[in-house]
Amino acid sequence: MSENKPIIRVGLSREPVSLDDVAARLARETNGFGAGSLVVFMGFVKGVVGGYKVYTLSYEAYEDVALKKMEEIAREEAAKWEKTYAIWLIHRIGSLKPGDPTIYVFVVAEPRHKAFELASRILDRVKHEVPIYKLEAREDGEYWILGDHTRVRRGEGLQEPEKR
Amino acid sequence: MSENKPIIRVGLSREPVSLDDVAARLARETNGFGAGSLVVFMGFVKGVVGGYKVYTLSYEAYEDVALKKMEEIAREEAAKWEKTYAIWLIHRIGSLKPGDPTIYVFVVAEPRHKAFELASRILDRVKHEVPIYKLEAREDGEYWILGDHTRVRRGEGLQEPEKR
Amino acid sequence: MKVRVKLVSLLRDAVNGEGEVVVEINGEKARLRDVLEKLYSTYPRLKKLVEGLGERGLGVVYMVNGQGAELDAEVRDGDLVAILPPASGGCSFE
Amino acid sequence: MKVRVKLVSLLRDAVNGEGEVVVEINGEKARLRDVLEKLYSTYPRLKKLVEGLGERGLGVVYMVNGQGAELDAEVRDGDLVAILPPASGGCSFE
After folding, report:
1. Over the range B43-53, which residues count as b (16 or more CB within 10 Å of their CB) and which as e?
2. Which A residues in the span 60-119 are in contact with B, Cβ-Cβ below 8 Å?
3. Nearest Cβ partner of D87 from A64, A128, A155?
4. Cβ neighbour number for residue D12 with a 10 Å cutoff
5. Mean pLDDT for each 10-residue chunk of chain A (164 residues)?
6. Strand C2-7 to C80-84 pairing
7. Range list of H helices, C1-94
8. Nearest alpha-carbon partner for B112 in A109, A124, A77, A57
9. Whole-number mean pLDDT of chain D?
10. What pTM does this model have?
11. Is B127 helix (H, G, I), strand (E, B) or coil?
């Protein structure tokens, strides 16, 4: 058995990713080190937000910095726990419809509760620290989403949507 | 929008399951209720346990009771959190090789940290409460696995494996 | 009366690999403990295993027709008894 | 000297939808604040937006060539400046 060196991969993708391909590959590449737990988070576009129907959610990234930051998060989190075998992060960019996948976080780690903990923390960090931006087009207009909760109506200064 | 009634499905399967099919289906069926977070746990056979190479891991279930118990766990956990949109549990049975998937837990819930929490708790409950049994064939012999940590050498009373 | 007894995992090995054995008892009904006693008299190795598991905190669970049952539960002709060790990756299910 | 400034999200809307604008300044180097001042004089709506975001606790982050930078950072001909609002689903990145 050679020493465990975690698999770290990050990407921005205009296309959906095959969970089956990534899962099979990670299981194949990590089981020999004693790994047996894969946690996947897949975000997808909500069809309804705040009572309004959503048409599209468009993602853009400040790409170089986004990729660098995603890799940094993955490396830092992998380094915190020895039995981390793989971290694979993919963020979608482009215009997506309700139900379309938006982000994928794959973590192989032991024991299983650590894999959940890592995936959850990595996801939070990606959402907060990576320069990726959303424009939500919904039945009451188009909104830029900023920070955790702020929506700003497109083209009208800093006006927020009406609550429904 | 009709009222959210969580999707609950459980199964025992001799074949691997397509994560892509299940994920796409759950995203399609739940985004209209405002869901956007899917957590998947996929267990897979470890290639090495306790320093010994693993050849196969064979699962058998006391099937009727196993399915009933899995459904009970899914329903109980879904009932604990209103914004639970889907719980889908599949346990493999049969003889599996290192890297082969052994169990799948799919949870759609909001917010995302709740989806992680539910998936983790459901997984623990399935592992502890569902009558499913493992026989591990590895380079130092065949072992029945019982409870959380006990291995009993096949055909020799209650002899445990030697530590390596 | 005849009762089927389902055995899994290492308990099945102790009855020569049969997943299900039939226990015959005189009369129309019996207590679960009588069924087990009869079974154990045929398969003393099974009895030893069940006791050994109990000593290690891996006590078995008994079921009659898919429901958890105590030793004094009533068992009738045609019933299905199961003796289940703790799940692999767990401790109890009832 | 010429500096490229990258703008995303609602800040891009405030410069007529251009993802990248070029700012020209006399001399061979400048402070980041001088570049921004020049940029804001061309696009007063951008300035108002950046200030408005700051007032809401959504302060922007400045970058020079992909590294976080303070207002008195040195900027040279050909450098790439970015003005980044908080990520969607987050608050800061540095």
Report:
1. bbbbbbbbebe
2. 98-102, 112-113, 115-116, 119
3. A128
4. 20
5. 82 98 98 97 96 96 96 98 98 98 98 97 96 96 89 83 78
6. parallel
7. 9-13, 32-42, 44-55
8. A124
9. 91
10. 0.94
11. helix
A5's tokens: 């060196």
| A120 chain-D contacts, CB cut-off 8 A | none
State the residue for tokens 């060539």: D65
Nearest to B5 by CA among B89, B79, B104: B79
List pLDDT tens digits, range B100-137: 999 999 999 999 999 999 999 999 999 999 999 999 99
Q: How many whole angstroms separate alpha carbon C50 and alpha carbon D27?
A: 89
C-alpha torsion C37→C43→C49→C51, nearest 10: 20
Test the C interface: residue of B49, B92, B158, B159 with most C CBs within 10 Å: B158
Q: A141 in helix, strand or coil?
A: strand
Interface TM-score (ipTM) > 0.90: yes
Please check whether residue B154 touches C, CB under 8 A: yes
Q: Do A19 and B28 touch (CB under 8 A)?
A: no
> In this predicted structure, what is the pLDDT of residue A2?
54
Rounded Cα distance, B164 and A107, in Å: 28
Q: Is A119 helix (H, G, I), strand (E, B) or coil?
A: helix
Class of domain A7-163: alpha beta
Domain range annotation of chain D = 2-84
List the one residue out of C7, C42, C45 whose CA is nearest residue C24.
C42
CB-based burial, C17-44: b 16+ in 10 Å, e otherwise = eeeebebebeeeebebebbbeebeeebe
For domain C2-84, the CATH superfamily is Beta-grasp domain (3.10.20.30)
B125 CB neighbours in chain A (<8 A) are none
B27: tokens are 């995203």
Residue A110 backbone phi and psi in degrees, to 5: -125, 145
In B, which residues are within 8 Å of A28 by CB distance? Answer: 99
Mode of pairing for the β-strands spanning D80-84 and D2-7? parallel
What pLDDT is attached to residue C91? 38
Residues 6+ apart with CB under 8 A from D76: D1, D28, D29
DSSP assigned state of B159: P
Residues near B20 by beta carbon (within 8 Å), at least 6 away in sequence: A18, A19, A20
C-alpha distances in Å from residue B43, one per residue of A2, A53, A107, B89: 22, 36, 12, 12
Q: Name beta bridge partners: D68.
A: D63
Contact D84 A62 (CB under 8 A): yes
Q: Is residue D92 scored above 50 in pLDDT?
A: no
Which of B153, B150, B148 lies closest to B137, judged by CA? B153
